[in-house]
Write the structure tokens for this entry.
Amino acid sequence: MILEGSLDARGLRITLVVARFNADITERLQRGALEALKAAGAKDEDISIVQVPGSFEIPLAAQVAASTGEVDAVVCLGCLIKGETPHFDYIASAAAHGITAAAAATGVPMAFGILTTNSQEQALARARADKTNKGWEAATAAIEMATMLRTLRAREGLRA
Ligand code: RBF
């Protein structure tokens, strides 16, 4: 038997956690994510946007948002552009591990929409106004996971 989610976001409550660092890019990711959610039938009143200073802050905000029990999925959006600093690797690693841990701790799916690129140009190429936008992709993954988990949990509930 194959169990999978759908791309129907009707009735889903979704929180976007968006880093302000590199805002010119993250605003585009946010726009892409919102368009994907609307196209999939999510209602405005079911979508929340939480802003944080940088990608490093995303995991905690995602975990607290998910802990309310009133969120079906979280979409994490940020942009790290590699510079002369090792911070790039530290922050990217902390964000990835932190989001993984937050999803595991809460049971709420969290989509990873944090760009890690060598240049601004590469970041812009991943934040275009079409379906290749990584915010759009992350929102779509969040919808698929939320709907899949709903089915999986209902099935497990029947077994228990
Ligand atoms: N946050 C990002 O989201 N993207 C970045 O490219 C980024 N670069 C940073 C580089 C340095 C040297 C530092 C100290 C912080 C950077 N941050 C970046 C911010 C970080 O995610 C966080 O907001 C701050 O470190 C405050 O905790």
